[in-house]
Amino acid sequence: MKTLRPEEYANLNLKEVLGRTKIDEESIHDARVSLRKYYDVLTSLYPVYENSECAFISNEIIGNLGRIRDMDICGSRDRRRDELAYDTIKKFKRLKICFLPRKIYGSRLLLFTRIYSLYKLIPQLDDFHEIRKRVRIIRNLAEALGYSSQEIKIIAKKMGDVRDNILKMECNGLTPPEINVNIYKEEALRAITRIIKGQEEFHYRFINLE
To answer: Can you tell me whether residue 166 is helix, strand or coil?
Structure first.
């Protein structure tokens, strides 16, 4: 199977978003996932490639999709939710100008360098949600590079489910239990270490990885 360039990966996900026209829960979730994949690649290409307009538009739409997703998790399917969803879907057309160039010099190294930077940051974090966000970005970038990422996908999904359950409890007026952050942190770090050590492109830059 052919490994896509990060630019191709981002553009395929952007194309997926542009093809979305429905506002049901699954469609909103899938559009959000695809746009995040595009956005994570786009922002990882800085400063070699920069498109601040598309980064701003994407981030704005991701924020709206996130609010709709939270409403869905809380079971708040009402007129306000659907109006926001329709308004957000209309904004997708603003992304038509946001396809990446076919080839950006050093794109793979830029993505891998960001994976490594996030990996080094995670041990310093104590907030579950901040760790979860970094894990999600690494999952997307590893996938964009064509690296074996099943393990980190499972961890990201597990952490996402925890986040959704916390939100559901809060929506119902309940206090979520305390999370043992270290369990997730250590599991994520092991998976990311295997991703970094498992690739063969950039060993010369990261030979001191423990």
So the answer is: helix
